[in-house]
Amino acid sequence: MTHHNKLFGLSPEAGRWVYVVTGLIICLCLGSVYSYSVFLKPITESFNITATQGNLPFMTFLASFSILMFFSGKIMSKFGAKKLSVLGGLIVGLGWALSYFAAEAKSINLLILTYGIIAGSGVGIVYGCPINIVGQWFPDQKGLATGLVLAGFGGSALITAKVAGSLIPSIGLSTTFLYFGITFAILIVILALPYKNPEAGWKPAGWTPPAAASSAVDFDSSQMIKTSTFWGLFLAYLIGCLAGLMAIGISKPVGSEIIKIDGETATMLVGIFAIFNALGRPLFGWLTDKITPKGAAIVNLLLIIAVSIMMLMAKEGDLILYVVAFCGFWLILGGWLAIAPTATLTFYGLKNYARNYGVVFFAYGLGAIIGGIISGQAKDAFGSYQVAFWPTLVLGIVGLMIVMALLKPPVKE
């Protein structure tokens, strides 16, 4: 083996695992948005705003993320994953760091711009890069490598919620934003610098590529959106993201206000819930393979119905009920982030997959916006987040009917 084939001084087979580790750490930085519920109460209290307004930066962040992810997929082939990661990493850090000024000025509009639009856009730019790199280095174990990298995004709140929960009371909200921003920019840029694609034709030793499967017909995006299958997938994904992201955004205040647990316990539990978000991906990825995308979607929607009912029954002191329900909500979101890409690939083929999934992924951004509005309005209009679980219950039932009717292999015109 010639020297220039080595990766990090190791054989490519061993060295490529470094990309999995660095990708996981980058995704930990990107997924810190999932610890937003720890910031929510300090923001609404210090800015003196309503719950709906307090949700706006979170909703904007996730919407910006889903829009920019669509466009960054298109430009990655031109600029490469390294340049895109460095650029996106600096934007992520800048958005978080500039939120220092929004918190100092107590301006929600400025926070929507800095945290929501700037940091969210940066995450959308970087998100596909580690996935692209490990996908190229792991043609033999694509699912496993990608799943491990993305577990960093889903499990991020396990670490970032704990850090934010201890920083905010000690150094203040604005300085916490600043420290997060500086840390994220440094980590993402440094970890992306070693990125390089394997040489043309490289494959792992002892691995033979499977014969090209003549599976699904390849659809392009315009053909895809004309199928009823797409709308079944899009609407079900929207409902799953809406329920999951809504719950993620209010996890801590629900624990404090409805169950009446102390702030420290509520922050600690957000970290526990994050584990289930991370677990949702491999679990539902496996289910999607075993019982088809339709079967996995049905299981997920039944779970939405069950956990919504649990939260409608929950009252002060019902700690177990709250923990089980919210582990379920975080699992639901992680699950959809495995079901939707796999379903897109299964139904519409590999050829236009990146672009097609970019279109399907708009459901995530839309779900974030609608979910945030529902929880904020429930709190502002009815004085309790509990009312928000009525819409998730009803939508879970609607989603089930949509999936039963529409989620089947599409027929090309």
Short overview:
The chain has 413 residues and is mainly α.
Describe this structure in words.
The protein is mainly alpha-helical and 413 residues long. The protein folds into 2 domains: 10-199, MFS general substrate transporter like domains (Growth Hormone, Chain: A, Up-down Bundle), CATH 1.20.1250; 216-413, MFS general substrate transporter like domains (Growth Hormone, Chain: A). Helix content is 79%, strand content 0%. It has helices spanning 12-30, 36-47, 51-79, 81-105, 108-137, 142-171, 173-192, 221-224, 228-257, 263-313, 319-348, 353-360, 362-382, 389-406. Helix 1 packs antiparallel against helix 5, helix 9 runs parallel beside helix 13 (362-382) and helix 11 runs antiparallel to helix 12. The longest helix has 51 residues, at 263-313. It starts with 11 loop residues before the first helix and ends in a 7-residue tail after the last helix.
